[in-house]
Specification:
Elements (H helix, E strand, L loop, with lengths): L7 H14 L5 H13 L32 H8 L6 H10 L7
Length: 102
């Protein structure tokens, strides 16, 4: 079997996907994100099942208790507003691309 090397456009697509996941500089983080995506399953209703892992503040490592990101707004505004305004941070946190110190 003669396999051709990937074309530059294929490499660019993978690089763009890694950047979108926020993992292009860290192979371990990339592996973690890929595993998370692979584990995502659809419930019979067609909705995503609730994740079993607790949500963690990407800036300080605070673990949120209860239902997903409940309380992130108050936590962020009290602890991290000087780092980045909540209105800018939340979309990045929600999609998993915010990179903080935690």
């Amino acid at each position: 079997m003669n396999k051709e090397p990937p074309s530059q456009s294929q490499i660019d697509k993978f690089r763009d996907a890694a950047r979108e996941l926020g993992t292009d500089d860290d192979p371990e983080r990339f592996g973690d994100k890929v595993r998370q995506l692979a584990k995502a399953k659809l419930a019979p209703t067609g909705k995503h099942e609730k994740p079993s892992e607790p949500k963690v503040c990407p800036e300080c490592g605070h673990v949120f208790q209860g239902n997903g990101w409940d309380g992130i707004d108050a936590h962020w505004k009290a602890k991290h507003q000087s780092v980045m305004p909540y209105s800018e941070a939340w979309p990045l946190i929600k999609c998993g691309t915010y990179i903080g110190d935690a």
